[in-house]
Amino acid sequence: MSESAGDPKLIERGVELLRAGRLVAFPTETVYGLGADATNADAIQRLYTVKGRPADHPVIVHGGDLEVLDAWGREVSTAARRLAERCWPGPLTVVVHRAASVLDAVTGGLNTVGLRVPDQPAALALLRSFGGGVAAPSANRYGRVSPTTADDVRRDLGDDVDLILDGGPCTVGVESTIVDCSTDELLVLRPGGVSRERIESILGHTVRERQVGDQRAPGSLASHYAPRARVELVTRLELMTRAAELSTVAKVGVLAMAPVEGVPDGVVLLSRPPDVESFARGLYRSLRAADEFGVDVVLVVPPPPHGLGLAVRDRLCRAAGADSGLDA
Ligand code: TXA
Ligand code: MG
């Protein structure tokens, strides 16, 4: 059921399934998405059921090119257009006023819609050949860690998905940056694959980040992107002392940027990525690996708070249940 996405016949099969109202998981540069025809209410219903997601939480509509903006949006602002032109295909979602035809089921009843063109060859082939919008949340069960390989999707969703296109591991590894462009004051709803620095340089001014308690973010739950293991954020200075202390009572895993030395006996070194890009790319795999190794507590030293580091820190905080956030 999971097939290498390079084969044009498989893309055609994916398109046929989407047209028939079925669910197709596909790779993107961020995480794997669980796709359904965004104009088919029954297909969207099934998407929500399989995902286990509350019906009032919106999904992102994916398209193959810039035309998705005007096909699904209305009164699209200059800022939204400029960001889309500069960042698509790429890990950016713009939230704009929705066109009248957009189903309530897609937007969770909001009068806005999130749109994105992913930068992944199989995704683009599927979307361009399908021609319409594909509603796609991350292809994990609600609240769990997002999938970054086809195997992750298969393990999570099994037979509930009709086809899994295998495009190999995702290259970015954390979800798209979501920018709400539906009002005059732009707001970053979720940090992601496009840095705030890049957004600000495209727009020529600073943008605000969503704060806890902001009402523009639907679906605020404390714990998301969470493995079964408890995630604890520590400083580099605290790391080894805490690992030694905890390892007498629990199975401990460690995730921190290199160098990481002196890991106590019995503690699992999950990963020591050399840079923040690798940290992001491997983040969800490491959290999943923690569960596969039967780790009880994952000690993580978050990367510095700029660029892609902001997105990694955001996901880590939510995995630790430390911040409320958007949907998983
Ligand atoms: O990188 C990504 O964005 C991945 C890949 C598959 O494209 N998708 C993804 O989808 O992360 P999902 O459903 O797991 O997260 C989408 C987030 C949710 O938090 C949702 O609340 C928000 O986007 N969202 C969607 N439409 C929105 C809207 N109209 N207004 C505000 N937030 C919206
Ligand atoms: Mg998600």
What's the layout of helices and strands?
Layout: E1 2-4, H1 8-19, E2 24-26, E3 33-37, H2 41-51, E4 60-62, H3 68-72, H4 78-87, E5 92-97, H5 104-107, E6 112-116, H6 121-130, E7 134-135, H7 150-157, E8 163-166, E9 177-180, E10 187-190, H8 196-203, E11 208-209, E12 230-233, H9 236-246, E13 252-255, E14 268-271, H10 276-292, E15 297-300, H11 308-319
Helix pairs in contact: 1-6, 10-11
The chain binds threonylcarbamoyladenylate (TXA) and magnesium ion.
Residues 137-138, 146, 327-328 line the site of magnesium ion.
Hetero ligands: threonylcarbamoyladenylate, magnesium ion
- Are there runs of 5+ residues with pLDDT below 50, and where? 216-220, 323-328
The total of beta strands comes to: 15
Structural class: alpha/beta
Distinct helical segment count: 11
Q: Which strand-content bin applies to the residues?
A: 15-25%
Rough outline:
globular
Terminus-to-terminus distance = 24 Å
Biggest sheet strand order reads: 1-8-2-3-7-4-6-5-9-10-11
**Share of helical residues:** 25-40%
**Radius of gyration (Å):** 19 Å
What is the N-to-C succession of helices and strands?
EHEEHEHHEHEHEHEEEHEEHEEHEH
- Mean pLDDT metric: 93
Question: Main beta sheet, described?
Answer: 11 strands, mixed
